[in-house]
Amino acid sequence: MGVVTNISEVSGHISGFVNQRTLKSAITCSGVGLHSGQRITITLRPAPADHGIVFRRVDKILNGEPVSIPADWRHVVNTMLCTVLGNGDDLTIGTVEHLLSALAGCEVDNVVIDIDGPEVPIMDGSAAPFVFLIECAGTVAQQKPRQMLKIKKPVTLEDKGKKVSLSPLEDSDSQTLAIDFEIQFDNAVIARQKTSYHVGRASYKNDIARARTFGFLHEVEQMHAAGLARGGSLENAVVLDGDTVMNEEGLRYADEFVRHKVLDSVGDLYLAGAPILGRYQGVKAGHALNNAILKALFQSPESFCWQALPESQRGSAGGVPNLMRAVAAAF
């Protein structure tokens, strides 16, 4: 019988707390950038405890090192069509939300992301390829407890019929992020969709990760004319022409549109720097309001606190399957 030298890899916790996780090994993938149309390669690499998630532009070298940009709400510089991170010197990385969503869903706390272009590859328009990448690399527990951002008092923002809020969890036994989201479009395929979801590893993979980004044909044509969405196609987005889904395979879920909004929100909220213990509610919200609610939260210190999650309260945060509760589909 071999000697166990790293108890964290076996038990997944130290001193009764849920611990931070990183990748077991580095792994690489390539794909097209949605807006640039460039072929871009990313490599996910293990990182030490308390490192966080950091992007490195390996195509931009300064003082012999790739330029680094932390995945942090304070580094968000644009939210027009996606979430864009920047270093303050006009160097940016766009479309980070799907990859961050996958890292959040797979409970990865520390990773270095090497990237050789200005945006994360769009892949198939969902987070599923990144979940697959993370599972292929594997994850491992580290020797530090995972810090959670616990919401203590509600914070709410509204703008022109859009609304977003963070509030304490009603159920003290729930130790995860709860999301309620509602969208409404003047389109018969989308119409009004609502869903409620608790972020857990198994349910994230099954119920959220495969939901693709979406758009309307006339908007795609306008963006192409403006030199945007150069890499967009039916291979990486759900495209609607009036009330018709143009993708030959159709939808992956009847309410794929609102599920993708949940996917985006999980990624945007991971820019808080830690998993959130609280309830997020979004009504017609997007990247801009998601970043704004994090700014508002951190400007209100009495509204949150940091805490480690005891292993005994791990629940859904540890990957136990949760039920995806679709309270309403299109109607």
Order of helices and strands: HEEEEEEEEEHEHEEEEEEHEHEEHEHEE
Average per-residue pLDDT, rounded, comes to 89
Radius of gyration: 19 Å
User: Strand tally, please?
Assistant: 22
Tally of distinct domains: 1
Q: Can you describe this structure?
A:
- By secondary structure, this protein is an alpha+beta fold.
- The chain has a single domain (10-328), classed as lpxc deacetylase, domain 1 (2-Layer Sandwich).
- The protein is built from seven helices and 22 strands.
- The strands form five sheets. Strands 12, 13, 14, 15, 16, 20, 21 and 22 form an eight-stranded mixed sheet that branches.
- Strand 3 (27-32) and strand 4 form a beta hairpin.
- Helix 2 crosses helix 3 and helix 2 (97-105) packs across helix 6 (256-269).
- The termini are far apart.
List the helices and strands and how they pair.
Elements: H1 7-11, E1 13-14, E2 17-23, E3 27-32, E4 39-46, E5 53-62, E6 65-70, E7 76-78, E8 84-86, E9 92-93, H2 97-105, E10 111-115, H3 128-137, E11 139-145, E12 147-151, E13 155-159, E14 162-167, E15 177-184, E16 192-198, H4 201-208, E17 214-216, H5 217-225, E18 238-241, E19 244-245, H6 256-269, E20 276-283, H7 287-298, E21 304-308, E22 325-328
Parallel strand pairs: 5-10, 12-20, 15-20, 17-18
Antiparallel strand pairs: 1-2, 2-11, 3-4, 4-10, 5-6, 7-8, 8-9, 12-21, 13-14, 14-20, 15-16, 16-22, 18-19
List its traits.
about 325 residues; alpha+beta; lpxc deacetylase, domain 1; 8-stranded mixed sheet; 5-stranded mixed sheet; 7 helices; 22 strands; globular
